[in-house]
Amino acid sequence: MLRWALAFFIIALIAAVFGFFGIAAAAAGIARILFFIFLILFAVSLVAGMTRRA
Question: pTM score, two decimals?
Fold first, then answer.
Protein backbone atom coordinates (compact mmCIF):
# COMPACT_ATOMS: atom_id res chain seq x y z
CA MET A 1 0.00 0.00 0.00
CA LEU A 2 2.92 2.29 0.65
CA ARG A 3 4.06 1.65 -2.92
CA TRP A 4 0.69 2.84 -4.25
CA ALA A 5 0.88 5.98 -2.13
CA LEU A 6 4.38 6.65 -3.44
CA ALA A 7 3.27 6.00 -7.02
CA PHE A 8 0.38 8.46 -6.74
CA PHE A 9 2.70 11.01 -5.14
CA ILE A 10 5.11 10.71 -8.07
CA ILE A 11 2.20 11.03 -10.52
CA ALA A 12 1.12 14.17 -8.67
CA LEU A 13 4.60 15.66 -8.90
CA ILE A 14 4.89 14.92 -12.62
CA ALA A 15 1.42 16.32 -13.30
CA ALA A 16 2.24 19.47 -11.34
CA VAL A 17 5.45 20.00 -13.33
CA PHE A 18 3.55 19.78 -16.60
CA GLY A 19 0.79 22.10 -15.37
CA PHE A 20 -2.04 19.63 -14.86
CA PHE A 21 -2.95 20.98 -11.45
CA GLY A 22 -6.34 19.27 -11.28
CA ILE A 23 -4.83 15.86 -11.88
CA ALA A 24 -1.97 16.68 -9.51
CA ALA A 25 -4.39 17.61 -6.73
CA ALA A 26 -6.42 14.44 -7.24
CA ALA A 27 -3.33 12.21 -7.27
CA ALA A 28 -1.95 13.94 -4.18
CA GLY A 29 -5.25 13.42 -2.40
CA ILE A 30 -5.28 9.73 -3.24
CA ALA A 31 -1.65 9.41 -2.13
CA ARG A 32 -2.47 11.11 1.18
CA ILE A 33 -5.44 8.80 1.83
CA LEU A 34 -3.44 5.68 1.01
CA PHE A 35 -0.57 6.83 3.23
CA PHE A 36 -2.88 7.35 6.21
CA ILE A 37 -4.50 3.96 5.65
CA PHE A 38 -1.01 2.46 5.58
CA LEU A 39 -0.14 4.17 8.87
CA ILE A 40 -3.31 2.91 10.54
CA LEU A 41 -2.77 -0.66 9.34
CA PHE A 42 0.88 -0.50 10.42
CA ALA A 43 -0.10 0.67 13.91
CA VAL A 44 -2.75 -2.05 14.22
CA SER A 45 -0.33 -4.77 13.15
CA LEU A 46 2.34 -3.41 15.51
CA VAL A 47 -0.05 -3.51 18.46
CA ALA A 48 -1.32 -6.96 17.47
CA GLY A 49 2.23 -8.25 17.28
CA MET A 50 3.10 -6.86 20.70
CA THR A 51 0.02 -8.35 22.32
CA ARG A 52 0.64 -11.73 20.71
CA ARG A 53 4.09 -11.96 22.34
CA ALA A 54 2.82 -11.10 25.82
Answer: 0.75
